[in-house]
Amino acid sequence: MNINEIQSNQGNITIEAKIISKEEPRTFSKFGKEGRVCNATVADSTGEIALTLWNDDIDKANVGDTIKLENGWCSEFKDQKQVSAGKFGKLEVVTAGK
To answer: How is the chain split into domains, by residue range?
Structure first.
């Protein structure tokens, strides 16, 4: 699947893309549990999209890496589409950046 084909509220998304930017992680507390979240931007030859990284995935992926998101989910926040691994998806680094 290409980035330009992703629709809001779509599941079962599999893309391969390069991380072109990554913000500083921030912590949150929900249901009495601490967690971390980080916004990044990924791109392929068809466009770019926001990627939300959660907890362990934050340390796994860095700018310049090519990642594969399997069974991801697309939501929309402030009219901007964003993808994440969600509960059932998986994020892996295919090629580490330089």
So the answer is: 3-95
pTM exceeding the 0.85 threshold for the entire prediction: yes
Residue (of 36, 33, 81) closest to 57 by Cα position: 36
In sequence order, the β-bridge partners of residue 54 are 37
Model pLDDT for residues 17-35, shown as the tens digit of each residue = 999 999 999 999 988 889 9
8 A C-beta contact, residue 17 and residue 92:
no
Residues in a beta bridge with 94: none
Written out in words, the top-level CATH class of the domain with range 3-95 is mainly beta
| Amino acid occupying residue 9 | N
More confident residue, 90 or 87: 90
